[in-house]
């Protein structure tokens, strides 16, 4: 297969270990995991499904807040 196993995204992602800002991450196609590595070679990981759930929950919380206000 010629296709790469991951896609690279640019942005700002804090290292989980030292909080250094990393400017790109990889989205692994098979596992749907996000990984990024700071200059000190700490590997940070996140699951895309977790991220999506967190995002949806945050949206819902904001909706609730605007309804009660
Ligand atoms: Zn680090």
Secondary-structure topology with pairs:
Blueprint: E1 6-14, E2 21-28, E3 33-37, E4 43-47, H1 48-68
Antiparallel strand pairs: 1-2, 2-3, 3-4
As for the number of domains, it is 1
> How many β strands by DSSP?
4
Mean pLDDT: 88
Q: How helical, in percent, are the residues?
A: 25-40%
Shape: extended
> Rg, please?
15 Å
Hetero groups in this structure are:
zinc ion
Overall structural class, as computed from helix and strand content, comes to alpha+beta
The helix/strand series, from N terminus to C terminus, equals EEEEH
Low-pLDDT runs: none
The end-to-end span amounts to 54 Å
DSSP strand content: 35-45%
Task: Give your account of this protein's structure.
The protein has one domain (6-68). Strands 1-2-3-4 form a four-stranded antiparallel sheet. A hairpin with a 5-residue loop joins strand 3 and strand 4. Helices cover 30% and strands 39% of the residues. It has 69 residues and is of the alpha+beta class. It has one helix and four strands; from the N terminus they run E-E-E-E-H. Zinc ion is lined by residues 15, 17-18, 20, 38, 40, 42.
């Amino acid at each position: 297969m010629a296709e790469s196993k991951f896609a690279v995204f640019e942005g700002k992602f804090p290292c989980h270990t030292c909080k250094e800002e990393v400017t790109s991450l990889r989205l692994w196609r098979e596992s749907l995991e996000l990984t990024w590595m700071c200059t000190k070679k700490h590997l940070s990981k996140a699951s895309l499904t977790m991220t999506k759930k967190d995002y949806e929950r945050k949206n819902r919380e904001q909706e609730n807040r605007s309804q009660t206000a």
